[in-house]
UniProtKB/TrEMBL annotation:
Record's protein name: Pantoate--beta-alanine ligase
Keywords carried by this UniProt record: ATP-binding, Ligase, Nucleotide-binding, Pantothenate biosynthesis
Catalytic activity line of the entry: (R)-pantoate + beta-alanine + ATP = (R)-pantothenate + AMP + diphosphate + H(+)
Top-level class of the enzyme under EC nomenclature: ligase
Family from the record: Belongs to the pantothenate synthetase family.
Lineage start: Eukaryota, Fungi, Dikarya, Ascomycota, Pezizomycotina
UniProt EC number: 6.3.2.1
Classification via Pfam families: Pantoate_ligase
Pathway: Cofactor biosynthesis; (R)-pantothenate biosynthesis; (R)-pantothenate from (R)-pantoate and beta-alanine: step 1/1
GO process annotations (BP): pantothenate biosynthetic process
GO molecular function (one): pantoate-beta-alanine ligase activity
């Protein structure tokens, strides 16, 4: 009698045993796609593993393009490169809290899921029409923080306890000096993403040059069977490197934001003229930065833009350690970080940028290619 009642209830629409309900949820997630595309949206490690398994048997080359979303042409160029060289491209979209410092812009970091989906849908149609591609975008992996940190999120403090990948000394240099937890967060999340997706190739942007060296070193030192491919920096026509953070700038600071690229180019010119010593090369960059700041300071507070230089560096390409002379057989990396301060005396109706224009840290770099 009792079992009959349960069976009847179970058969009714109003009730489902919890297990069956969660299975429906998993099945629904597995079927989720970006609207009007075949691109799967995978949200769990389990869903990625289920998707990945048959690709091994079919000898498909799977690549991964890790991103934090707010997609722009820089991300798109990496996805295009991945589609040329692999059958299945997975794009991950995950704003990893572990790579933000406690005082950084995690809370206001632009999250633009619907627009990202539109960009990926348009790009996938282009990839389908272009016969030069080996593959297309197969899936977007968009996990939650609970999924990525199964033992609980370890926190953003320098002394947080948890399972981390720590790459030293490189993580302590340059970006790491100002952002001491940044590369620990990046290396840790990338190892997780690599283990989840198991890509043959991963694509990173030259824009974040120190990140590319950290990832290359991690792949080498932990014997990961992965090719690291680095795509060149995508820029605005005036040279500003594209970045998801450029939306914070607003018009006034956007116009001055080219200063870093102009400074690095001036230094590059020295190298192309045959100069190899650090002081002369970096002097050219520092002059552009000082001259531009002087020009700004001659303006009134309602017009000017102030910035602070975090570093201007000339480093070895494989260690990111500073060099006193460029070895022309090895080349070098010119890189810099400049903090654009919030505008003074905002004018009525002035476009201050996303989140009312907080301080924005811009980074950029130029590779000094070795001479033949
Ligand atoms: P993000 O979403 O900022 O974490 O960046 C994801 C990937 O896109 C990283 O490998 C970045 O180096 C790369 N990327 C970001 N901006 C650019 C750019 N302007 N040009 C090329 N790659 C970029």
């Amino acid at each position: 009698m009792i079992s009959l009642t349960i069976r009847r209830l179970a058969g009714s629409r109003a009730w489902k045993p919890p297990l069956a309900r969660s299975m429906v949820l998993v099945r629904r997630q597995a079927r989720e796609t970006i609207p009007s595309t075949p691109i799967k949206v995978l949200r769990t490690v389990d869903a990625v593993r289920k998707w990945r398994k048959p690709q091994v048997l079919d000898h498909r080359i799977v690549s991964l393009v890790p991103t934090m979303g707010a997609l722009h042409e820089g991300h798109i160029s990496l996805i295009r490169a991945a589609a040329r060289e692999s059958h299945q491209v997975v794009v991950s979209i995950y704003v990893n809290p572990a790579q933000f410092g406690i005082k950084e812009d995690l809370a206001s970091y632009p999250v633009t899921w619907d627009n990202d989906c539109k960009i990926l849908a348009k790009l996938d149609r282009e990839l389908a029409d272009d016969g030069g591609n080996l593959g297309r975008i197969s899936a977007v992996f968009a996990p939650t923080t609970n999924e990525i940190y199964p033992s609980g999120f370890p926190g953003q403090e320098v002394n947080s306890k948890g399972s981390f990948v720590v790459m030293t000394p490189i993580s302590e240099l340059l970006e790491g000096r100002t952002r001491p937890t940044f590369f620990r967060g990046v290396a840790t999340v990338c190892l997780k993403l690599f283990n989840i997706v198991q890509p043959e190739k991963v694509y990173f942007g030259q824009k974040d040059v120190q990140q590319t060296v950290v990832i290359r070193n991690m792949v080498r030192d932990f014997m990961l069977p992965i090719d690291v491919v680095v795509g060149q920096t995508s820029r605005e026509p005036d040279g500003l490197a594209l970045s998801s953070r450029n939306v914070y700038l607003g018009e006034r600071r956007r116009n001055v934001a080219t200063v870093l690229n102009r400074a690095l180019k001036a230094a590059e010119e020295q190298y192309h003229n045959g100069v190899l010593d650090r002081d002369t090369i970096l002097k050219a960059a520092n002059s552009v930065i000082a001259d531009t700041l002087n020009e700004q300071m001659a303006l009134g507070p309602e017009q000017r833009v102030k910035y602070e230089v975090d570093y201007i560096s000339l480093a070895d390409p494989s260690t990111m350690q500073e060099v006193t002379n460029v070895d022309p057989k090895v080349g070098g990396i010119l890189s810099g970080a400049v903090k654009m301060l919030p505008v003074e005396a905002p004018q009525p109706g002035e476009d201050l940028g996303h989140s009312d224009g907080p301080a924005v840290r811009l980074i950029d770099n130029i590779v000094l290619e070795p001479s033949a």
